Please model this.
Amino acid sequence: QVQLQESGPGLVKPSQTLSLTCTLSGGSISSGSYYWTWIRQPAGKGLEWIGRIYTSGSTDYNPSLKSRVTISLDTSNNQFSLKLSSVTAADTAIYYCARDYYGSGSKFDYWGQGTLVTVSS
Amino acid sequence: DIQMTQSPSSLSASVGDRVTITCQASQDIRNYLNWYQQKPGKAPKLLIYDASNLETGVPSRFSGSGSGTDFTFTISSLQPEDIAIYYCQQYDNLLFLTFGGGTKVEIK
Model:
């Protein structure tokens, strides 16, 4: 049973770097036709794709966030991580990690439960 | 980027009603569209992929259709457990995936 679990600080100060980790259980992060993805959702608003990493380590990012985002892979711990620099209150959101299966197009077939990150001093 | 416009933004229907949500893409996205259901306090759940394919384990009252720029999501007989927000998502531009703004479904 594939499960994803986000972890990291729930409170980040403005101008600092948000750091989150997603741990995969029930599978190997280095195998299969998957992108490992971060998506966020401000309270009461819609979903925003942040970016993804492939098992090779190649990445794609939302153009509006690209200058501030880094997604990395830690295959030894079956994890992938998000770093978002120079955060502001506008980055306050629930952050989800998800598996994007591209074996047939693209679909987010497994999601973590989400973690709320608040940007505040 | 490809803009996805959903309508209506919210709707209220009775149990047993047929519910239809539309999603319009700002350009031709072929059939590269998924639908998700998000219940309060939960992560989204994949319901439909490739515009019309039902994800494994999803009840058959859910369906999707369309191609090009216009897509439809249907609940054939609304159930109380279907109360949620529904999102469409395009993957024609694989370098920038985008979602619709969501449709909130409530029971009348």
User: Anything to note?
Assistant: The two ends of chain B are 36 Å apart (CA to CA). The interface with chain A takes residues 1, 32, 34, 36, 42-46, 49-50, 55, 87, 89, 91, 94-102 of chain B (CB under 8 Å). The CA atoms of residues 90 and 96 of chain B lie 9 Å apart.
